[in-house]
Specification:
Length: 896
């Protein structure tokens, strides 16, 4: 499989990722480089944030999984037993919605099917679509252990979910209770607080008056954005200290339209300064109202059906959709004389994360996890940095949520998912047992209800399933079968790094930490790397609905997987959003081409029949060799430091500069022989190949395909050799020669200044120039002369003088580098009379420009009234112009 050294003549002129990526990915899989089994090595473990089984690859997945791949590939090269566990989440709400939609297209309603029939369709969908995103990740180069692919509905995984429910229930940490929940009227299920997205919208605030019972013309006015909930009002609340309403203490009000008499209650919960100071209380449809209802034993009227239509309890508008009711009830209130006024109002409204439906607060009997005690170790171990967040700024967000944590509603009114293992006996829902199976439930029920005659047919299992996150919070444990066997969990757990998005910090990260301490008494991972959000050029989050997200597969076809990976990572530090533009992928593709062309240039200098062996045994007399070796080890050291701090963006930029700037733009140029057309000497070529080999190792985690392709070409490899399991380069401080770096940088700056002079004076690169350098530093003068070959190779120099007693020649261009004055005599190179005219013209232009600035600054009205920054900017223009005029006048003197 490996490229042969004899194939160098056949290296394509252009790099074609489409011919490389599938080849090397198949090679990696064939040799099982990604597979891991416990052994004597230290493990390095990452578990993938499992994408929804319904999903396809999007830009957020691309960024997240590229980062994971970078971390795991480097760890593999460092000699760790690297294990990256892939898998998918069954995604109850999203998958059920997809299945219902497909059934609808076939003319089938979910209600027409039994539960088992519906689940057959759900499994059919899962088998068809469940592996799509994982196959797409392979195109990206993800080096997951595909033999370990897990699914949250796998039989063994499901066992661990059910057993966890039973364990927490038996510990008293799971309970069943009627509480206010977020209800999705489209998905017809409860949602957790974290599954609600709040959006600021333009609404209406309706001021409605309620008549005081027993009075002729006395009213109180309330303001609401949800007038349809008036149908469920069971009280009016006022602040006991509000003197405006002290005469209403103990009285009752009449709910308009339904004419229900309700008490006026007193509670300091009401803000006297907000609105009218009167609050309508609808216990079944608002969380705060529910608390007031419990406190004052108010009637609870559930005026809305699960699908968002008005229920029989609402009395009016029965069966109408809530939003149609809103429009109608406003008209009816107005006609009845109850609507005081309507005003425009900007407020936040909760939407379902999954269906984008407006959420309804709803009183409902659900299953809950008691979180207060359970979460304490999870808070403590993040705040003390036992688990580290990158960037650390997210600790405060985490702390705030954990300190104010609420009980977790874990039941969902769906069929696809892990069915709650509760079995009810009798007509009501009050008598139940929790068991792993119906057989076990029968035995428990007989004992609990003291009835040996109970059979399975007498029990009915809870219809609800568990919240998807109740299965994924066990992910780092269950993927290693950690509830039932010790071998793998003891070896791989705790995992090393988790890469995820901050928006699921509470959905998933916090809950995994909670589960880790509850069931392993240990953290689930040591580091959490939070990625940013991929946004378009307008700053909008990429989404299908906006149509602003490119197809990742098409991007990889156009720019290559390496190009896309490099482009994304180059543009996003940890925790920062990525403003995505396809041009960043173009930069990645250009880098691939630069690397390919540099390598191809080296191979074109190889003489047929000559064997080349990459080496880092440099020529100690060659400054470019000493400098390049120093830069290599300096970069390795800095990259290792960046990895330790999870600054992958910085690490990639350093590798980019090493390859593009140092190696391609400088080292290769200096490796060329002075006589055009001669090949690079074998010894020099071997060293250049040695550098290339090490650079490909550094690059591999970021751009695995092109680095593997070139590494295989550099020298003979056996069929089972691969860069992905080669040794990560080690930095050697002894090989970082600070003096060589300083000397070479000085030669670089001298070369750059000469290039600038050529450009400014329009001197052809082919024309020889005479160079004079005045320096008072004898050592620097000697070094420049010692390394003159660098200037000779990069600049056409006829004569070089370096001394401390040189005078500036007439008609010479000049520059200053590290206090050294560089002169290039211009006579014979350019038309001096034209240059003199150019300088004189530029002087005249700047003098006119300066007069305009001076006039503005002499205007007291401008100086006194303009912003300080504007005045300061004009003063800076004046000083810069004066400095430029001074330099031009000095140059003009040289032409006299």
């Amino acid at each position: 499989m490996a490229n042969s050294i004899s194939e160098r003549d056949n290296i394509p002129a252009k790099y074609d990722p489409t011919k490389v990526e599938d080849k090397w990915y198949a090679h990696w899989l064939k040799n099982e480089y990604f597979h891991s089994e416990p052994d004597e090595r230290e493990p390095f473990t990452i578990v993938i944030p499992p994408p929804n089984v319904t999903g396809v690859l999007h830009m957020g997945h691309m960024l997240n999984n590229t980062i994971q791949d970078v971390l795991v590939r480097r760890a593999r090269m460092q000699g760790y037993n690297a294990c990256w566990v892939p898998g998918t989440d069954h995604a109850s709400i999203a998958t059920e919605a997809k299945v219902v939609h497909r059934l609808r297209d076939k003319g089938i309603k979910k209600s027409d099917l039994s539960r088992d029939e519906f689940l057959e369709h759900a499994w059919e969908w899962t088998r068809e679509h469940g592996g799509i995103i994982l196959e797409q990740l392979k195109k990206l180069g993800a080096s997951c252990d595909w033999d370990r692919t897990s699914f949250t509905m796998d039989e063994r995984y499901s066992e661990s979910v059910i057993d966890t429910f039973i364990d927490l229930y038996e510990k008293g940490k799971i309970y069943r209770g009627e509480r206010m929940i977020n209800w999705d009227p489209v998905a017809l299920t409860a949602l957790s607080d974290e599954e609600v997205i709040y959006k600021e919208v333009n609404s209406k605030l309706y001021h409605v008056r309620y008549k005081i019972s027993g009075s002729e013309n006395e009213y109180v006015t309330i303001a609401t954005t949800r007038p349809e909930t008036i149908l469920g009002d069971t009280a009016i609340c006022i602040n006991p200290d509000d003197e405006r309403y002290s005469h209403l203490h103990g009285k009752k009000a009449i709910v308009p339209l339904v004419n229900r008499e309700v008490p006026i209650i007193l509670d300091d919960y009401v803000d006297m300064e907000f609105g009218t100071g009167c609050l309508k209380v609808t216990p079944a449809h608002d969380e705060n109202d529910f608390m007031l209802g419990e406190k004052y034993d108010l009637e609870i009227i559930n005026m809305m059906n699960p699908d968002g239509t008005v229920s029989e309890e609402g009395q009016l508008y029965v069966g109408m959709d809530r939003f149609k009711v809103r429009k109608q009830i406003v008209k009816d209130l107005d006609e009845a004389g109850h609507l005081v006024e309507t005003e425009d109002y900007r407020n936040k409204v909760g939407y379902s994360e999954r269906t984008d439906a407006v959420i309804e607060p709803r009183l409902s009997l659900q299953w809950w996890v008691s979180m207060k005690e359970l979460s304490k170790p999870a808070l403590e171990n993040v705040m003390n940095d036992n688990i580290q967040f990158h960037p650390a700024k997210f600790k405060n967000t985490y702390r705030h949520w954990m300190e104010n944590i609420k009980d977790w509603c874990i039941s969902r009114q769906l069929w696809w998912g892990h069915r709650i293992p509760a079995y009810y006996y009798g007509e009501g829902d009050g008598q139940f047992v929790v068991a792993r199976s119906s057989e076990e439930a029968v035995q428990k029920a007989r004992k609990k209800f003291n009835n040996d005659g109970i059979e399975a047919s007498d029990l009915r299992q809870d219809e609800d399933v568990l919240d998807t996150w109740f299965s994924s919070w066990l992910w780092p444990i269950s993927v290693f079968d950690g509830f039932y066997t010790d071998e793998e969990i003891d070896y791989y757990y705790p995992t090393n790094d988790l890469v995820t998005a901050p928006e699921i910090m509470f959905f998933w990260v916090a809950r995994m930490i909670i589960a880790g301490y509850e069931y392993r008494d240990e953290k689930p991972f040591s580091n959490v790397y939070y990625t940013g959000i991929v946004r378009d050029k307008k700053g909008r989050k990429m989404s299908k609905s906006l149509g602003n997200s490119p197809d990742p597969i098409e991007l990889m076809k156009e720019y290559g997987a390496d190009g896309v990976r490099m482009g994304m990572l180059f543009s996003t530090p940890a925790g920062n959003d990525l403003p995505f533009d396809p041009k960043i992928c173009e930069q990645g593709r250009n880098f691939s081409n630069k690397i390919w062309n540099a390598f191809r240039f080296l191979t074109m200098n190889m003489e047929e029949g000559t064997h080349y062996t990459p080496t880092l045994n440099i020529d100690e007399e060659d400054l470019s060799d000493k400098w390049m070796l120093s830069r290599l080890h300096q970069t390795i050291k800095e990259v290792d430091d960046d990895f330790s701090k999870y600054r992958l963006n910085d690490a990639l930029k350093k590798i980019y500069r090493l390859i593009w700037d140092d190696f391609c733009d400088w080292y290769i140029e200096l490796a060329k022989p002075q006589t055009y057309g001669d090949p690079i000497p074998k010894e020099k070529l071997n060293v250049a190949l040695g550098f290339f080999e090490e650079m490909m190792k550094l690059l591999h985690p970021f751009m695995p395909f092109i680095s593997e392709e070139i590494w295989q070409y550099i020298q003979e490899r056996s069929d089972d050799e691969s860069l992905c399991v080669s040794d990560w380069p080690e930095a050697d401080d002894k090989k970082i020669d600070g003096s060589a770096i300083t000397q070479f940088e000085m030669m670089q700056e001298i070369t750059s200044s000469l290039r600038n002079i050529r450009a400014e004076m329009e001197i052809s690169p082919k024309d020889e120039i005479s160079v004079q350098i005045r320096t008072s530093d004898t050592e620097s003068a000697e070094k420049i002369l010692d390394h003159r070959i660098i200037l000779d190779k990069l600049q056409s120099i006829s004569d070089l003088k370096v001394s401390n007693d040189l005078n500036k020649p007439d008609a010479a261009a000049s520059a200053i580098v590290h206090g050294q004055e560089i002169y290039v005599p211009l006579e014979g190179l350019i038309d001096l009379s034209k240059e003199k005219e150019r300088i004189e013209g530029e002087i005249q232009r700047l003098q006119g420009f300066l007069k305009g600035i001076e006039k503005k600054l002499s205007n007291e009205a401008f100086v006194n009234n303009a912003p300080a920054a504007v005045v300061e900017k004009e003063q800076k223009k004046k000083s810069d112009t004066e400095e430029n005029l001074r330099k031009l006048n000095e140059q003009l003197e040289d032409f006299k």
